[in-house]
């Protein structure tokens, strides 16, 4: 009996933490002969009764006499409760044993990824070696750098996988050892031993059954070497790159209407956002993503994957028949969260209008000939009498600023931008500074001093905010673009020696900085480090020419939208600078401009344009067709410049002539 209890205590004391050392094998059960055990309190007496309140076995003398230890307790013959407790223990055993196939599959999957990772490492190493053979001494230094990066990347991935494997194997060992001991007690132990095992091991088995194990892979095996020999010979010091991501399928999510519903014969899209094992966003592209769509007849539908190169992917498919479609999304061969999905394809006539479409229909002028006339600043713009005389409901939410040089005051403000963090950033041109406000118009920050040195400003015009929150400022008279931290600390400048008069600035989906050069009548595309990617445009009236271009925006297709001031039009180009289309002409009618300035693009691709000479804001669809105006009549604009959309969906515009900025309601 004592030896049995000693063995039981050893089992319970064996490493319950999967992060600790692996458990040692369990010793054989202490009393495997099937002989009944004697009562520890009454020598020579056999334990043949069971006390239910105490959950323990005992002898007859424990139940009799005036000084019995279990007075007033309900006791029953041991044999009457034996089968009941054996069944309960067997149920717990079956439940925890059911975890073993899952763990075995997880171990196999993670081990295979680890093997593939090692194989990819070997393949990449071979590719690195063969690429560097032709470049000899000039490439050796760079080769060693890449090999170190490869080793470090592989080691980091292997460390994650090995840590996961260790946890999985320890959990596997814990379950196996506990199951073995419990089975030994069930098959070879006496009735008393079974009862003691049930009491002592039950809690351990319950804990093992409920313990979470990292069954999904925490890494992937992608590890590749990428090189372009001709380009490498031209830039030897920046040769090569290791392509990999930390994306995992079980944390990656798919979103979009295309997961639920589609229209027959029309392309339908959805978005995939890759995440790592901890759920953090992956901000680089190149992951191995497979998208397959199966129609109601079992045939594959047209499907494609577009890599946005920022950790997100656009998936597009076109159903050719009505019915239910199955959408399978695999990342590194594993289904993303929720995959496969089921979407229903409807005929166009069966699709109800969305709330956004209904809003646009109400908002757009019905006859197509209504226009908001050019408004010049009245003598008393803000008088109460003027407001009472104007019956038009004003869409103005708030206005901030007046003429001056203090915080919250402006002198000829130009560019305006917003951030996902709920900030509004304004280029205060003649005050040589940048001011930052909340989405509600509360002053937050002001930075910048006048001067010609890096970090100083000399007529800031355009402004933008990148994904890191850094503030990018087009400095017109200094002829460069300055980059500041979210707190206004100078970080770097770019474009010096190339730019003649930078006006508008934007950041595309690849992190490239798009700069409109007002004097040179062209557009520059820079990498964040200042390296020139492309340049297009010259002075003139042709498709790829400009006459005093002002501001720029980027739509969700990474297309570049530029306002061509003196040509009274808006021009749209692809990410490489190839002309796509233009819209607008000189005039005061719907869709006409008198020198367009600020521009922004909403989530639906609609283009919002500040019409400087007509002092109004017009809204166009993604193809450049006029939709509507933003109502500014009750508090008229005077020479609007920069324009942007806030994170909560409002339009903000730099009302330059009134030395303030205004926020308007906007129904997308």
UniProtKB/TrEMBL annotation:
Filamin repeats: 244-345
Family matches, as Gene3D superfamilies: Classic Zinc Finger (3.30.160.60), Immunoglobulins (2.60.40.10), TolB, C-terminal domain (2.120.10.30)
SMART domains: BBC, BBOX, IG_FLMN
EC number of the protein: 2.3.2.27
Keyword Repeat attributed: yes
UniProt domain B box-type: residue ranges: 34-78
NHL repeat windows: 397-440, 446-487, 488-529, 533-576, 580-623, 624-667
Top EC class for this record: transferase
Region (Disordered): 343-386
Swiss-Prot/TrEMBL keywords: Coiled coil, Metal-binding, Phosphoprotein, Repeat, Transferase, Zinc, Zinc-finger
Coiled coil: 79-141
Pfam family, one: NHL
One GO molecular-function entry: ubiquitin protein ligase activity
Catalytic reactions of this protein: S-ubiquitinyl-[E2 ubiquitin-conjugating enzyme]-L-cysteine + [acceptor protein]-L-lysine = [E2 ubiquitin-conjugating enzyme]-L-cysteine + N(6)-ubiquitinyl-[acceptor protein]-L-lysine
BP-aspect Gene Ontology terms: proteasome-mediated ubiquitin-dependent protein catabolic process; protein polyubiquitination
CDD domains: CC_brat-like, NHL_TRIM2_like
Domain of life of the native organism: Eukaryota
Record-linked PANTHER family: E3 UBIQUITIN-PROTEIN LIGASE NHLRC1-RELATED, TRIPARTITE MOTIF-CONTAINING PROTEIN 3
Family the entry assigns: Belongs to the TRIM/RBCC family.
Name of the protein described by the UniProt record: RING-type E3 ubiquitin transferase
């Amino acid at each position: 009996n004592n030896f049995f209890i000693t063995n039981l205590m050893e089992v319970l004391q064996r490493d319950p933490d999967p992060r600790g050392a692996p458990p040692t094998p369990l010793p054989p059960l202490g009393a495997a002969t099937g002989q009944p055990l004697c009562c520890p309190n009454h020598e020579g007496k056999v334990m043949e009764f069971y006390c239910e309140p105490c959950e323990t076995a005992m002898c007859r003398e424990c139940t009799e006499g005036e000084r019995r230890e279990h007075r007033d307790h309900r006791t029953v013959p041991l044999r009457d409760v034996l089968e009941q407790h054996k069944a309960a223990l067997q149920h717990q055993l079956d439940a925890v044993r059911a975890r073993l196939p899952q763990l075995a599959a997880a171990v196999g999957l993670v081990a295979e990824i680890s093997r593939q990772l090692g194989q990819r490492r070997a393949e990449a190493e071979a590719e690195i070696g063969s690429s560097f053979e032709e470049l000899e001494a000039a490439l050796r230094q760079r080769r060693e750098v890449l090999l170190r990066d490869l080793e470090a990347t592989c080691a980091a991935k292997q460390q994650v996988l090995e840590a996961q494997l260790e946890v999985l194997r320890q959990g596997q060992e814990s379950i196996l050892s506990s199951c073995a001991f419990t089975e030994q007690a069930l098959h070879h132990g006496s009735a008393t031993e079974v009862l003691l095992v049930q009491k002592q091991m039950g809690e351990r088995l319950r804990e093992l059954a409920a313990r979470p194990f990292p069954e999904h892979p925490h890494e992937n095996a992608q590890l590749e070497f990428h090189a372009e020999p001709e380009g490498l010979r031209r830039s030897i010091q920046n040769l090569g790159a290791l392509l990999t991501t930390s994306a995992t399928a079980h944390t990656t999510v798919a979103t979009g209407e295309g997961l639920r519903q589609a229209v027959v014969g029309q392309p339908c899209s959805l978005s995939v956002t890759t995440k790592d094992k901890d759920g953090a966003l992956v901000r680089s592209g190149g992951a191995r993503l497979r998208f397959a769509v199966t129609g109601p007849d079992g045939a594959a539908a047209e499907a494609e994957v577009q890599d946005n190169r920022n950790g997100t992917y656009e998936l597009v498919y076109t159903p050719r028949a009505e019915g239910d479609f199955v959408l399978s999304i695999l990342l590194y061969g594993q289904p993303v969260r929720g995959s496969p999905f089921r979407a229903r394809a409807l005929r166009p006539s069966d699709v109800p209008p969305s709330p956004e479409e209904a809003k646009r229909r109400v908002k757009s002028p019905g006859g197509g000939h209504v226009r908001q006339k050019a408004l010049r600043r009245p003598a008393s713009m803000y008088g109460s009498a003027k407001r009472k005389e104007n019956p038009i409901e004003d869409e103005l939410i708030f206005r901030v600023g007046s003429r001056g040089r203090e915080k919250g005051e402006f002198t000829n403000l130009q560019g305006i931008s917003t951030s996902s963090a709920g900030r509004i950033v304004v280029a205060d041109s003649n005050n040589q500074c940048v001011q930052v406000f909340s989405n509600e118009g509360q002053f937050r920050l002001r930075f910048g001093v006048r001067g010609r040195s890096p970090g100083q400003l000399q007529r800031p015009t355009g402004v933008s905010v990148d994904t890191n929150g850094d503030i990018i400022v087009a400095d017109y008279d200094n002829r460069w673009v300055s980059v500041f931290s979210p707190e206004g600390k100078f970080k770097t400048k770019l474009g010096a020696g190339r730019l003649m008069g930078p006006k508008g600035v934007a950041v595309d989906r690849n992190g490239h900085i798009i700069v409109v050069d007002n004097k040179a009548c062209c557009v520059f595309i820079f990498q964040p480090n200042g390296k020139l990617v492309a340049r297009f445009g010259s002075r003139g009236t042709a498709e790829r020419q400009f006459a005093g271009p002002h501001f720029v925006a980027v739509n969700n297709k990474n297309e570049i939208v530029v306002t061509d001031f003196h040509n009274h039009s808006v021009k749209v180009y692809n990410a490489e600078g190839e002309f796509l289309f233009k819209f607008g002409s000189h005039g005061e009618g719907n869709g006409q401009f008198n020198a367009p300035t600020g521009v922004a693009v909403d989530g639906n691709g609609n283009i919002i344009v500040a019409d400087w000479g007509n002092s109004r804001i017009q809204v166009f669809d993604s193809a450049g067709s006029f939709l509507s105006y933003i109502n500014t009549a009750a508090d008229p604009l005077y020479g609007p410049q920069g324009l942007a959309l806030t994170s909560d969906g409002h339009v903000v515009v730099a009302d330059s002539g009134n030395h303030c900025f205004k926020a308007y309601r906007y129904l997308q």
